[in-house]
Amino acid sequence: MTAVPEFEFRTSSACQYNNNDPRCVEVATNVPGKVAVRSTVTGRTVEFTADEWTDFLGGAKLGEFDVTA
């Protein structure tokens, strides 16, 4: 039986981590075909397929998720 690799999370370079306000997002891309995103506040993790993650990043780069007032 093959061992399932653990996610190795890294914190976004845009995160200004502050011990008094530790709201950051961490991403793991080390497991083939999967991407995991984790909140530093709750520790909750959401998993995506590599294709879903690529589609999300493409939409974000195009402004698809921009918040308007």
Task: List its traits.
69 residues; DUF397; 1 helix; alpha+beta; 17% helix; DUF397 domain-containing protein; 4-stranded antiparallel beta sheet
Question: What would your notes on this structure say?
Answer:
There is one protein chain. This protein has a domain at 21-61. Strands 1-2-3-4 form a four-stranded antiparallel sheet. A hairpin with a 5-residue loop joins strand 3 (34-39) and strand 4. It contains one helix and four strands; from the N terminus they run E-E-E-E-H. The radius of gyration is 14 Å and the shape is flat. The protein has 69 residues and is an alpha+beta fold. It comes from Streptomyces gossypii. It holds the Pfam family DUF397.
